[in-house]
Amino acid sequence: MILISVDDHIVEPPDMFRNHLPKKYIDEAPRLVHNADGSDTWQFRDIVIPNVALNAVAGRPKEEYGLEPQGLDEIRKGCYDVDERVKDMNAGGILGSMCFPSFPGFAGRLFATEDPEFSLALVQAYNDWHVEEWCGAYPARFIPMTLPVIWDAQACADEVRRNAKRGVHSLTFSENPAAMGYPSFHDDYWTPLWEALVDTDTVLNVHIGSSGRLAITAADAPMDVMITLQPMNIVQAAADLLWSKPIKKYPDLKIALSEGGTGWIPYFLDRADRTYEMHSTWTGQDFGAQKPSEVFRDHFLTCFISDPVGVELRNQIGIDNICWEADYPHSDSMWPSAPEQLDEVLKANNVPDDEINKMTYENAMRWYHFDPFTHIPKDQATIGALRKAAEGHDVSIQALSKHDHGGASFADFAANAKELTGNKD
To answer: Which residues of the chain have pLDDT under 70?
Structure first.
């Protein structure tokens, strides 16, 4: 089996801006600050972004999961060091990875300042670091992904085109820009972006939680409520985009529902078809000869970690619309034993080899124009071959935390998410 993950995460290293931000801005750049309590936090002007423990728990005991800020010395080096990341990937049997940002937010909202030139310089510096240093260090191992200029649709389109010229076909974005104070997906404001995405065959990746809007019932509800309901954000984004004008206007527009899971999709598609049948006459929706479920399969990519229900119902989703994700180093990740747990689910549902190949690596290669086999022979890209290359690499569970546990409150977590994204709810 060969594994390419379309959803992983980076904890950015402290020197990332050094080689890419114009010298006149270096003193104003975000910086990683080591605090008296031992934690490391990114600070930009008056904003402090903690590295919460659920973001980087790979290789740590579950007793250390939580929301307290932590230092780089309390997490695996593979979270922020690309050489160590590749060793962890080898040990986990993972050939390829697409890595979402952490401290700038999934949509780069942190970099929006009163100075458009400075803001753009920050986005471009981040993207240059990600493409040239993180992905460029191991081109066969990483699918490059760039941040958007989310506060300016035309500048965002220009940045998509700039990066496409060097082979980037993946853009991270907000699941709901309206919640961040920007025009919604239904506004013509975004036309330059849609056109750039289609012209360059770039996938728009909307990650759960990227708008800062959290699915929660009450401020005093247990954290378990929010964690359980996290995929609901992506359900809303899927509906918002499926019924939007761009889906009808741009037949080649591609959207990935990142870290959203797959088990909910068959019901969602059935509901969308029923809505169209019963209400399109008076709402004015028109998909021509297609049903919404068919349009969904033309435009949307989904992903799963293990998701037994989604695997069982894979053909109701669309086998060409499903990818696998590892979610390293987040708390849903099964690293380093993801292959074993995935194999168990695949065997339980009698998934044939051709369908396994599509979900585990072929769909990712096709959607993102990623071909690792120009660098690595296929027989050296399998789980077994990669693990053999990682022999001796320590993947044991290690207690690294130097903090008391119990974590921050949900209110603190929600407030930080809203500040980082500019959420207006």
So the answer is: 53, 69, 403-425
Q: Are strands 170-173 and 203-207 parallel, antiparallel or unpaired?
A: parallel
Q: What angle do CA 139, 143, 149 make, to 5 degrees?
A: 120
CB 381 within 8 A of CB 95: yes
Identify the three-state secondary structure at position 130: helix
Query: What pLDDT does residue 399 have?
Result: 79
pLDDT score for 419 = 58
Q: What is the pLDDT of residues 48-87, one digit of tens each?
A: 998 775 777 888 778 888 777 688 998 999 999 999 999 9
Strands 300-304 and 255-258, sheet pairing = parallel
Contact between 210 and 421 under an 8 Å Cβ cutoff? The reply is: yes
Task: List Cβ neighbours of 272 (8 Å cut-off, separation of 6 or more).
Answer: 239, 242, 291, 292, 293, 296
> What's the pTM?
0.93
What is the spatial distance between Cα 147 and Cα 102, in angstroms, rounded to a whole number?
11
Our CA angle for 327, 332, 337, nearest 5°, is 80
User: What are the tokens at 216?
Assistant: 């929660």
Task: State the Cα–Cα distance between residues 281 and 267, nearest whole angstrom.
Answer: 22
The DSSP secondary-structure symbol of 394 reads: -
Burial of 271 (0-12, 13-18, 19+ CB in 10 A): middle
d(C-alpha 156, C-alpha 138), whole Å: 27
Structure tokens at 193: 């972006």
Please tell me the distance from the alpha carbon of residue 333 to that of residue 53, in angstroms, as a whole number.
13
CA distance 368 to 361: 11
pLDDT digits (tens, 9 = 90+) for 185-210: 999 999 999 999 999 999 999 998 88
How many other C-beta atoms are found inside a 10 Å radius of the C-beta of residue 288? 6
Omega within 30 of 0 (cis) for the link into 336: yes
Residue pair 173/139 in contact (Cβ under 8 Å)? The answer is no
Q: What amino acid occupies position 267?
A: Y
Tokens standing for 332?
A: 């849903």
**The pLDDT of residue 417:** 54
Token couple for 347: 């065997």
Token pair 């074993």: residue: 340
Residue whose C-alpha is closest to residue 4's, from 366, 411, 260 = 366
> Would you state the pLDDT for residue 412?
58
Residues 6+ apart with CB under 8 A from 63: 399, 405
What CA–CA distance (Å, rounded) separates 175 from 417? Answer: 14
